[in-house]
Specification:
This protein has about 450 residues and is of the alpha+beta class. The protein is built from 16 helices and 18 strands. The strands form four sheets. It has an eight-stranded mixed sheet. The protein has a five-stranded mixed sheet with strand order 15-14-16-17-18, with helices on both faces. A three-stranded antiparallel sheet has the order 4-6-5. The chain binds histidyl-adenosine monophosphate.
Length: about 450
């Protein structure tokens, strides 16, 4: 039997079978129903940013590759394996940004943002790109919301403030079973000594480590703690404890963070193997997770202190701390915890037309109502009165405005209260006032 011909369409003169027309792997279309979840999260982010005095910043989606090589580190998975490179005519090699902190540090230096004020509190929302293996909570294009506090000394109060804002975000979204893990990865003084101790601990185990960890052992041994390979994980338990090796300044800083968190009644678990996958961190690092449904997505907000990043990019040393959360992960957890899907603010008024002439006049009526600030629903595509009334009912509106041939000739319109089922005819010229009057009337 002859197979069905494949429907083809043309893109740039190349024919592509229709079934091949899909979003790239690990990237998704964000359809209207998903926006209700996103909008809910973004509204919470915006509200918190306003309460806690963070100003919005937006950096380009493309950046020079060396920004991340210098800032995030050439030995990190993000830079080493996951960057999307974009070669454009006569330009340097650009990359689709894999994260937001190095670009913000670049913008901070480029615009001398440290000059205008000693403390910059910034927040951002936007897409990030990492060529990772797609799985639960791991996409190749994902949206992050982040908060950064730059300048103002390495006061542990700022560490606590960043953690606090993410705690409040999770609470506001009603996410349950939150666990906050926290650690300190030391500074320039104590970390090199600890790294040496770690290297000597792993020396006789090197051959048993996975290929990636054998490389990490030489370049960045702390990252061995992040490996999910069973054998590598098994060596973690007896590894030297990072917290025991912190210098006095780092110990006091961490103690300060704990004191602020205790004061704020934020519970936390100290995890001395939490190291994070970006090289710019020093001292405090943190990650939030959930237990139970949704746990499979991994870390929700994550971040830490990055006191040396400005220096790594050629600026002056500027203490800073921040964090970011993946929006898709938040949505996945909210769904896994069986939260009710967010709904659009229901309309209070619905216009119903009966007949062709009324339909023609409807757009103008809708416009009058909308320009007076009344949010109004319609089903101009439907002609049956019953179908329109059903839709009005489904939307849960309070008033249906019904008009047909007779009302047009009389220059009137029927207002039907869908709660009391009482209806009344009013003059079309007074419709805005009549609707407003009824909407402000208390429900019976
Ligand atoms: P990160 O841990 O790489 O840190 O990412 C922060 C958060 O983004 C993660 O905890 C997760 O919620 C989300 N995320 C990361 N990768 C993916 C992915 N492939 N798919 C979906 N969601 C993902 C940073 O990016 C730092 N810039 C955070 C920061 C800000 N540190 C200081 N300031």
């Amino acid at each position: 039997m002859a197979s069905k011909p494949v429907k083809k369409i043309t893109v740039n003169k190349k024919e592509i079978p229709k079934e091949d027309l899909h979003a790239p792997r690990g990237m998704h279309d964000i359809l209207p129903h998903e926006w209700l979840w996103r909008d809910k999260i973004f509204a919470a982010v915006d509200e918190l940013a306003d309460f806690y005095n963070f100003n919005r910043i937006e950096t380009p989606v493309l950046e020079r590759a060396e920004l991340f090589e210098r800032g995030v580190g050439v030995d990190t998975d993000i830079v080493n394996k996951e960057m999307y490179l974009v070669k454009s005519k006569g330009e340097d090699m650009l990359v689709m940004r894999p994260e937001g902190t190095a670009p913000i540090a670049r913008a901070y230096l480029e615009h001398h943002m440290g000059r205008s004020t000693s403390l910059q509190k910034l927040f951002y929302k936007g897409p990030m790109f990492r060529h990772e293996r797609p799985q639960a909570g791991r996409l190749r294009q994902f949206e992050q919301a982040g908060f950064e506090i730059i300048g103002g000394g390495n006061d542990p109060m700022y560490d606590a403030e960043i953690i606090l804002i993410f705690q409040r975000l999770l609470e506001r979204l009603k996410i349950k079973n939150i666990v906050l893990k926290i650690n300190s990865i030391g500074c320039r003084v104590c970390r090199p000594l600890y790294k040496k101790q770690l290297q000597s601990y792993y020396k006789d185990k090197e051959k048993k480590l996975c290929i990636d960890c054998q490389r990490r052992l030489k370049t960045n041994p702390l990252r061995l703690f992040d490996c999910k390979n069973e054998t590598c994980v098994s060596f973690k338990a007896l590894a030297p404890n990072l917290l025991d090796k912190l210098c006095a300044a780092c110990t006091s800083n961490l103690k300060g963070v704990f004191e602020y968190l205790d004061e704020l009644k934020i519970s936390y678990a100290v995890d001395n193997t939490l190291v994070r996958g970006l090289d710019y961190y020093s001292r405090t690092v943190f990650e939030f997770f959930v237990e139970g449904p949704g746990a499979e997505v991994g870390a929700l907000p994550g971040g830490g202190r990055y006191d040396y990043l400005m220096e790594m990019l050629g600026g002056r040393m500027t203490p800073a701390i921040g964090g970011a959360v993946g929006i898709e992960r938040l949505i996945a957890v909210m769904k896994a915890q069986e939260m009710e899907a967010p709904r659009r603010v229901p309309k209070k008024v619905f216009v119903i037309h009966v007949g062709e002439l009324a339909k023609k006049k409807s757009l103008n009526l809708l416009e009058r109502l909308r320009s007076s600030g009344i949010s109004v629903g319609e089903a101009l595509g439907r002609d049956s009165l019953k179908a329109q009334l059903r839709l009005a009912d489904k939307e849960g509106v309070r008033l249906a405005l019904i008009f047909g041939q007779k009302e047009i000739f009389e220059n009137s319109i029927i207002i039907r209260d869908l709660e009391t089922h009482l209806q009344e005819s009013v003059m079309m010229d007074t419709i805005v006032e009549e609707v407003k009057k009824r909407l402000t009337r208390k429900k019976q």
